[in-house]
Amino acid sequence: MRLIMKFGGSSVDSASELRQVSELVKSHSQKNQIIVVVSALRGVTDSLLASCEKAEGGDKASAKKYVQDLSDKHINLVRSATTDKKSLNSVEKKIRTLIKDLEKLLLGVSYLGETTARSRDQILSYGERLSVQVLHSVLKDQKIKSVCLTGAEAGILTDSNFGEATPLMNVTKHQVTEILVPYLDKGVVPIVTGFIAGNQDHVVTTLGRGGSDYTATILASSVDADEVWFWTDVDGLMTADPRLIGEAKTILDISFREAMEMTIFGAKAMHPRALEPAMHAKIPVRIRNTFNPSNKGTLVQLSQSVKPVDIVKAVVLVKDVAVINLVGTGMVGKPGTIARIFDVLAKGGINVLMISQTVSEANVSLAIKRQDLDNAINSLETALLGSGSILEISGENDVSVIAVVGAGMKGTRGVAARVFQCVSEAKVNVRIIAQGSSELNISFVVKEKEAKRAVRAIHGEFLAH
Ligand code: ADP
Ligand code: ASP
Ligand code: MG
Predict the structure, then answer these.
(1) Quick one: which of 102, 111, 217, 430 could link to 277 by a disulfide (CB 3.0–4.6 Å)?
(2) How far, in Å, is the centroid of ligand 1 from the Cα of 242?
(3) Nearest CA to ligand 1 atom 17
(4) Do residues 82 and 18 touch, judged by C-beta distance below 8 A?
(5) Nearest listed ligand to the Cα of residue 250
(6) Domain 2-233 adopts which CATH fold?
(7) Ligand lying closest to the C-alpha of residue 262
(8) What is the pLDDT of residues 168-212, one digit of tens each?
(9) Nearest CA-CA partner of 191 in 364, 18, 405
């Protein structure tokens, strides 16, 4: 088989974890052709983002301390996970060079007092540039023939939408095949940085948070892989966030459409578009536990086998949400109002999670990410107030969205009634409701402090069998 194995940050954080990863690569590479994709070490991308923000405030001392700590973290890790002295010296040198470059970038930001999406991508790329070196040295230590490449070096070309770049698949497919297949044919394992790629001017881009999953499926569709495996720290995609619901169970089988619905709402911190390339190329994806490899995990594939008990597959809690309410009788019977609202938000780069309009049409409510609230309200007020159709725009920032996902809901009567009955029995007040026309999900807004209670109620009602 030709396999893409992606290891998330949650699988590469300590020497024992790295040894476990190299065991998995070793055992599977004996009979298969393998491409490894690796994320930054756990928490590193978040810390790079935070260090960017500090540097914007002109804090040079923090930038210096941060890069020193980051260097120590990676060097200590390779020292404890690698035994070969020669390869240790060479990887330490590479890490120090990368850290020096990163320091220059952060100091540059601190002098300028600002970052752009482009410079932020450059800085964020160091998480994966560093982790790939660490894993490379551990694989070498285990006598696994491997080579490390950045996403761009592996052939992934994107547009220049920094922070959320889109792969240009035709060129990417061609380049990735030309570059990676010869390694596979020689029995060499390419280790590719997740998350980062490059544009036509050879400038670093990132695919968006959680983007290593996306890298894996882009590579899979490029080299016609048989399967993609996402190795993580839980047994697979689960019926709810296991940190929230102790009794959440692993979903054995799920369709691409259902899994995508879950990831769009943020389950498992996966990139929302990560499954697209695999779905289009009909390549099955498995989500497996690095630390429990005997478990088969979750299989994501095209067909969906709906068992009557599986009407609902999962319940997802989306935190950090805000709601915008737009009120105005002038919207009644006026086509195009919603289009204008969407247009304004799209121009501001704001993604709408849900929309709901009352039958009277005098009220439209939208759920968006909380971080976008101020920006969204400002843009909407500037564009729409005074036009006569919208009189009042207000925001609420203490809400969450709950999404109930499952293909079996389609055409099954009474699911929504059961959902809202059990939520109301848990004394949770439901604010805004939306059901996608795909009928794959029912989502609704509740007050943040009541959200966990609602998730527990739904999990108990549909998924605790
Ligand atoms: P990785 O580092 O492997 O990319 P992520 O950070 O993307 O891992 O996501 C893994 C974590 O997502 C798990 O540890 C789990 O706690 C959390 N999680 C939240 N919701 C779910 C869900 N429905 N199924 C599986 N994991 C979930
Ligand atoms: N390191 C990146 C992030 O934290 C990509 C990933 O982990 O998938 O978003
Ligand atoms: Mg992830």
Answers:
(1) 217
(2) 8
(3) 268
(4) no
(5) 1
(6) Carbamate kinase (3.40.1160)
(7) 1
(8) 999 999 999 999 999 999 999 999 999 999 999 999 999 999 999
(9) 18
